[in-house]
Design a protein that fits this description.
With 299 residues, the protein is mainly alpha-helical. The chain contains 7 helices and 7 strands, in the order E-H-H-H-E-E-E-E-E-E-H-H-H-H. The relative contact order is 0.14. Residues 1-18 and 291-295 have low confidence and may be disordered.
Length: 299
């Protein structure tokens, strides 16, 4: 059998000795249970900080420019509660997407002992990543930023400073959904505020001067419109990817489907948890991913 060249994104081997396990150092001793996952990438950290800054800027303009100066108490309270709740859920989803292990394969597990424990039969194939020296489960791909192989990797998102994979896709979907909702809510409130200020005296519709008020509202309107479009598209593509059970990388590379086809509803439950409940919309509810299949490394 002809071996796949080492410069390809996967090494496909049929016999353990061809995997060169002697060149792989044993995986490092695992950290304590509950160790936080965090990617030390300068660009990703900067993007995550910018994300929080933009949400907090929207919070500032909504509260101190539009709602608190309003003389309609009921309008201010209702919109303030709704906007703050959505913003809190968006930031909580962002934290869960950023700090959750997306499904990293143990690094350096392509050792002789681990390969022998798989008890490979003649004709069975395992995949080795030459970059992190790991035996890759089916549908795993290597991320050059995380420097790990990620199970069901969809893409690496700098805005959450993490890969979107098997374990954190739910939180990324919720993040895009809540950002889209607060963007839409902010646009609607900006529109009503402009109409109110045109009808009333500009000096009475805000605590700031009229020029400052206009600049703050225009910046918020531009930010909200941009993020509404961006996150709505991302939310739609993610839901489509979940329903079709095909990650973004698999669609891009047009990989041959080697896994069983399931219904759209089953695919949704696999990501958000079983059964359907309000927990689907909560970034604090961890979906049950089930136990790892010991044969997932073997094809």
């Amino acid at each position: 059998m002809m071996l796949v060249p080492t410069h390809h994104f996967r090494d496909i081997e049929r016999k353990p000795e061809y995997l060169q396990p002697e060149k792989c150092t044993p995986p490092p001793f695992p950290g304590p249970a509950g160790t936080m996952w965090f990617i030390r990438d300068g660009c990703g950290i900067a993007c995550a900080i910018v994300t929080w800054f933009l949400v907090l800027y929207a919070e500032f303009v909504v509260l101190f420019v539009m709602l608190i100066p309003s003389r309609d108490y009921v309008y201010s309270v209702i919109n303030g509660i709704v906007f703050n709740l959505l913003a809190f859920l968006a930031l909580a989803s962002h934290c869960r997407a950023m700090l959750t292990d997306p499904g990293a394969v143990p690094k350096g597990n392509a050792t002789k002992e681990f390969i022998e424990s798989l008890q490979l039969k003649p004709g069975q194939v395992v995949y080795k990543c030459p970059k992190c020296c790991s035996i890759k489960p089916d549908r795993a791909h290597h991320c050059s930023v995380c420097k790990r192989c990620i199970r069901k990797m969809d893409h690496h998102c700098p805005w959450v400073n993490n890969c979107v994979g098997e374990n954190n896709q739910k939180y990324f979907v919720l993040f895009t959904m809540y950002i889209a909702l607060i963007s839409l809510h902010a646009l609607i409130m900006v529109g009503f505020h402009f109409l109110h200020c045109f009808e009333e005296d500009w000096t009475k519709c805000s605590s700031f001067s009229p020029p400052t008020t206009v600049i703050l509202l225009i910046l918020l309107c531009f930010e909200a419109l941009l993020f509404l479009i961006f996150t709505s598209v991302m939310f739609g593509t993610q839901v489509h990817s979940i329903c079709t059970d095909e990650t973004g990388i698999e669609q891009l590379k047009k990989e041959e489907r080697r896994w069983a086809k399931k219904t759209k509803w089953m695919n949704m439950k696999a990501v958000f948890g079983h059964p359907f409940s309000l927990g689907w919309a909560s970034p604090f509810a961890t979906p049950d991913q089930g136990k790892a299949d010991p044969y997932q490394y073997v094809v």
